[in-house]
Amino acid sequence: MKTFPMGGVHPQENKLSRAKAIEVLPLPEVVQIPLGQHIGAPATAKVAKGDKVLTGQLIAEATGFMSANIHSPISGTVQSVDMVENGQGLRQMMITIKREGDEWVETIDRSTELKRECTLEPAAIIAKIKDAGIVGMGGATFPTHVKLSIPPGKKAECLIINGVECEPYLTSDHRTMLELGEEMLVGVEILMKAIGVDKAIVGIENNKPDAIAHLTELAKKFKGVEIQPLKVMYPQGGEKQLIAAVTGRQVPPPPALPIDVGAVVCNASTTYAVYRAVQKNMPLIERVVTLTGKGVKEPKNLLTRMGTPIQTLIDAAGGLPEDAGKVINGGPMMGRAMINLASPVTKGCSGITIMSGQDAERKEAGQCMKCAKCVSACPMGLEPYLLSKLSKKRQWEAVEAEMITSCIECGCCQSTCPAYLPLLDWVRLGKQTVMGLIRARMAAQAPKK
Amino acid sequence: MANKLIVSPSPHVQSSQSTASIMRDVVIALIPALVVSVVVFGLNVLFVTALSVASCVLFEYLIQKFVVKGACTISNWSAVVTGVLLAFNLPATIPWWIVVIGAFVAIAVAKMTFGGLGKNPFNPALVGRVFLLIAYPVQMTSFPMVDNPGLDALSGATPLAAVKFGADVGQHPMTDLLLGNMPGSLGEVAAIALLVGFVYLLWRKVITWHIPVTVLGTMAVFAFVVALTRGGDAAQLWQFPLFHVLAGGAMLGAIFMATDYATSPMTTKGCVIFAVGIGLITMCIRLWGAYPEGMSFAILIMNACVPLINKYIKPKRFGVK
After folding, report:
1. Per-residue confidence (pLDDT) for residue B70, from 0 to 100
2. What is the model's pTM?
3. Please, are residues A94 and A35 in contact by the beta-carbon 8 Å criterion?
4. Among A99, A198, A395, B321, which residue carries the largest CB count within 10 Å?
């Protein structure tokens, strides 16, 4: 069975909520909407304190091309546009809205009826996706319209839909493919049209046989769409790993992009959001969030409005477990530990994983015994022990030569280390520093105006 | 808030293996060979092994406590592994004080001087063994006869030594080599018991197959070519390679000594180069050198090449042709 060419690990899957149907979370009373919840420039607020807004109304506009629109997920009154503490405890500009009723922007089609036909031109499709503020919902939050705008001189050959969901615990893409599969496949068709390809491959790991079977059956009605089962292996949901797994092509090191090997990758939930945006004029104001963890009473997949406090989701799943030691925005491999549970669900939040204190505590680090397990586990063919050691010694030139910028921060190295060394902590430091140095170098070389 | 939340960067998952669990697995993998050794050479085997382990652990404890003045490291089991491996490289009839000297050289000189676990360039147990071989050549090469276990007055030549001095490889039935029915160091004699340990280590994901298989494969191919050029009969062509793979310390070295984490390369490609080197040097010493066995020297010589291999042999990078 297909998978990516090197490295990878297989952590315990713990997909506790795999059989839980998507449940609609009641509308929140208050939402907080961060202006920067995507890669690129934060959006610019278009509302001020006291303004009345409707559900689906544009409240913050993309700042330039590499940015994304943001819409109100509820109807009500803007309470403030101010700095608020986010999940990591950092202060960030957010729009706070208090809910009044449930009134929608008129142009949005809220029916659940399937709308297959799409007669729009590629440019119009991309414009609609941009208007709807769609960004990568697998966690990377890269603006989707940027991905779909193929740069001149490059050509897309194949659309790849990321239904891998290799993070342990998370099941939001799984449930979306299972319950909203047909809508998602219409989204695939729309994306194929937008980038001008006649072939799309949906990559799904083999631990979701129900989704594979369901979509394979549905795909018979969609020309050029192929469902590709993949061997279960983390980090297969990484863009480069997925492209290699399904096409055999490896994206060269940065600054090369997937389009350089003719691939455009879009996450499964994002593809569903594209369907809704193009066919139903629905902006990205809600998403499926998996609320999970071993101590959680009822792990769930919750259809949640953006901006809903994480605490509301936790309460819906039976409250914070007694032994909770860590609340992670995302999954245990790449998610971010939170300190503020009042912080909101954002576009990139595919799940909240709650770990017990015992599981969450880092074990005491020992001494590297050169077991080379990190080297074997690295899906980018790097040597994490060496990158970590050189970063610790601040040897930036040496880490750059060892290709530290190729690191995708998947965490395979650290999760496989028997000495529990904080390898990725050091590699991140080295990578950030080297990227800063590269930017400074490019700025110095650039011709002066 | 009732719960105090822990905040740390991802990943939030840690390995189920630990340094101690890996080292313990190596000790477990050595038990079958120890059992065979007791059967072949008698209870003295247990005394030598226990003394070696106790000395290694004690030396590491004392050095860490009084010289390094750092945290106690003996709980990671690595000194136990060194102790068992050192014992496995000694004759069962070795005087007790030589065992203690060997343990001191292995732990104090070869391991702790360089900073302890993971930092030693040479395999500690092998440094101990080679030191003893040079310092006490008589005691180190007096192997008890299998038929008279425990009687150190009688000593027999190992199959490798016998062959070196002109005996025919055919004199040693392969079943004897497999089951340990021959004179030799304590832990090296039973190929089959060592192979059981090898399978256990593979199953527990402690080592990969690359180094052991490449070392033994290189030796077999080398022996086959030599047998060809010597123009022996057809039986020689398979007996000669098989003899070299089964006799002496080939199995013990290939499976347990060459695979030592700290002293082997970090990449699979590097490990293969390292293992080919060990196989070639071992055969050269065995066939044309002054010693009947060359495994220890071969591994130590290739240990010295590891930093160079790590510097020049890089893993295949993703996306780079």
Report:
1. 86
2. 0.91
3. yes
4. A99
